[in-house]
Write a structure and sequence with these properties.
Helices cover 56% and strands 10% of the residues. It has 291 residues and is an alpha/beta fold. The chain binds zinc ion (ZN). Zn(2+) binds at residues 54, 56, 110, 113.
């Protein structure tokens, strides 16, 4: 019996050590490509995206998007939840938005998610985990009619994966840090992705109702005007062409036009280079930006 434990421990250690060996090969490979690679990384980070993903080992954000260290600011937890009172995720969001100045936040769920699967069952998985899964159960309860309309169990799980992403995107829109960013003139866009583990592809989820202007008024926060603003600033802002509110709408409109046009040009104009596409899009939306 004791021999077996020793044998298993040796195996475990060897397996663990392979991870460190992998790191040494990674360093060698990177230095062979660029001998200053790590010195450049050490100078600082300017990531353009915040990605909130699941901790699942099969959904590594950088690898599946072919991005490099420094490109994406990442937060991961079980089933990519954005719980309003979670100190950890709120600090990540605040740092990303207010200090790193990211404009795009992505919530990425994935198919075959163990957290989602567990939340659909009534079996306990342990105290804290049950508490965490309750957040997913709330999403399940809200959308159970749609989810249960699928006959196949995997389809049910994957549809809850989608609905869960949608709900977490809404939680981000409702977040005061995000709402304040619009008022401060730093508009943030929120995207919902579903990573399909079985194909490797990412699907962008359609999230029309998550657009903040259509969000329930109950969650729309009016921040106190600063000392330098008149008490009627909020009312005045609506009519002011340069107000943050107007700027926010303009940015939203521009963002969705850009997305639509890029898709249109990429699909219909195979042999056009990126610069040409960019020029065409700028021409097309110039009018919009004047409004
Ligand atoms: Zn997962």
């Amino acid at each position: 019996m004791q021999n077996q434990i020793v044998h298993e421990s040796i195996e475990e250690y060897r397996r663990y050590n392979k991870v460190l060996e992998g790191n040494r090969r990674y360093v060698d490979k990177k230095l062979a490509q660029d001998e200053n690679y790590f010195r450049k990384l050490a100078k600082g980070q300017t990531p353009k995206y915040l990605l909130i993903g699941c901790s699942d080992s099969r959904a590594p954000p950088n690898e599946i998007t072919e991005t490099d260290p420094g490109d994406i600011f990442i937060h991961r937890n079980i089933a990519n939840l954005v719980i309003p009172t979670d100190l950890n995720i709120n600090c990540v969001i605040q740092y990303a938005v207010e200090h790193l100045k990211v404009h795009n936040i992505i919530v990425m769920g994935h198919t075959c998610c163990g957290g989602i699967k567990a939340a659909m069952k009534q079996d306990s998985v342990g105290g804290l985990l049950d508490l965490w899964l309750n957040q997913i159960k709330l999403v399940y309860e809200k959308h159970q009619e749609l989810i249960n309309s699928f006959i196949d169990e995997d389809d049910q799980i994957n549809s809850l994966c989608c609905m869960n992403v949608r709900e977490q995107v809404l939680n981000i829109w409702r977040n005061p840090i995000i709402q304040k960013s619009w008022q401060d003139g730093h508009p943030v866009m929120v995207h919902g992705w579903l990573f399909r583990v079985e194909t490797g592809f990412i699907e962008e989820l359609s999230l029309e109702d998550s657009i903040p202007d259509e969000m329930s008024k109950i969650f729309k926060i009016k921040f106190n005007p600063s000392k330098h603003q008149s008490p009627n600033q909020h009312q005045e802002e609506e009519g002011n062409a340069h107000s943050p509110m107007r700027a926010r709408r303009r940015f939203q409109r521009m963002q969705s036009r850009i997305e639509t046009e890029i898709r249109h040009f990429t699909i219909n104009m195979q042999n056009v280079n990126e610069e040409e596409i960019e020029n065409k899009i700028v021409q097309d939306i110039e009018q919009d930006l004047q409004v």
